[in-house]
Amino acid sequence: xxxxxxxxxxxxxxxxxxxxxxxxxxxxxxxxxxxxxxxxxxxxxxxxxxxxxxxxxxxxxxxxxxxxxxxxxxxxxxxxxxxxxxxxxxxxxxxxxxxxxxxxxxxxxxxxxxxxxxxxxxxxxxxxxxxxxxxxxxxxxxxxxxxxxxxxxxxxxxxxxxxxxxxxxxxxxxxxxxxxxxxxxxxxxxxxxxxxxxxxxxxxxxxxxxxxxxxxxxxxxxxxxxxxxxxxxxxxxxxxxxxxxxxxxxxxxxxxxxxxxxxxxxxxxxxxxxxxxxxxxxxxxxxxxxxxxxxxxxxxxxxxxxxxxxxxxxxxxxxxxxxxxxxxxxxxxxxxxxxxxxxxxxxxxxxxxxxxxxxxxxxxxxxxxxxxxxxxxxxxxxxxxxxxxxxxxxxxxxxxxxxxxxxxxxxxxxxxxxxxxxxxxxxxxxxxxxxxxxxxxxxxxxxxxxxxxxxxxxxxxxxxxxxxx
Length: 469
Hints:
Elements: H1 6-21, H2 27-41, H3 45-48, H4 50-56, H5 74-85, H6 88-101, H7 104-129, E1 132-133, E2 139-140, H8 143-151, H9 156-187, H10 193-208, H11 211-240, H12 245-254, H13 267-282, H14 290-293, H15 301-330, H16 341-352, H17 358-396, H18 400-418, H19 423-435, H20 437-446, H21 448-459
Antiparallel strand pairs: 1-2
């Protein structure tokens, strides 16, 4: 019997670790538990101050923000952060949750979003509070700074672990997977994968070379464009199938607490897949988004923290719900032999089939979802390049030199991902992406009191005083 190769051994080892990290008994309960803890520490800020959050975010989207330290506007920071979260999880992730866990999975996805709002608020607040101006570069903030500066120098090793995982994970989840999604989407229009890869290198390279400001400008277009396009299509489904909404909601709530035959037969299936796909969608607890929010110009960390709540609200409560309704209202989930993004495409196809010929309806349905995924995959690639280079810059220093080196390495990896090569790297990166959360969750629990204090001070109108080191 031939012994397994080193590649096979690495793949098997990674599969084992991945099943533990992303399984139902380790990371997911920790993320939800920390979210509940932070909800209590912040006195249910995502609910109690919901209208204030809308006023400070949606109500100020077109305002430049306060004249404060930072690199980009609060809305631009939100756009970069949402560029790293909105996308595949909102479309394919929701479809997979329903395919594997039934309609009840949607309820648990909502739950992960609701507690995730408090988690994202805390991450953003701490990232802002403990940020530092990188020499010759942008503001640096995120788990690496609130661990090393907030928890103290003796915990720097934990920040290093986070950055090692983050810098490596970015090449898979943020680069290769996204490049492959774009190439696959363009493949529907007859574009070869190698050509897609070269095009992606070009459009990614010309933006990343300009750093966070250029990335923010592109994100400020791509994210709203994708959200608007996708939500208009989803609203059309909701209007046309409006009479089926009570039945769809009934399915969601009934099977959130009742086992459903054909979907694992146990309640835990809906819970696990709903929470897992919710976390995958909004990334609350993973520690990625605060790196973008830390660059925002704001006069108080908690003010930017409200943008963190808004981010999860739009990502999970609004967009994931829209996808769920497209699937449930059109009935494509029942007895379907397709899953993932294709299930959503079939839902939109049923909508367009009401007014167009079958061939055109399929083109429109598949085209709407494909274009949405291309826009977000591109923006996710840009956002994760910034996350990865920020982690590398913390590890190696040297400011611009380290960041530019990371960007140069980033581009050929994009081509490899586009043509579907080195899928083992994707799998390892998925594991590393989960491992990023552990140092971050430790810091969020330890610094929960600081988050609460900053939130109280902001709500009382107290002037913010940055920490002195």
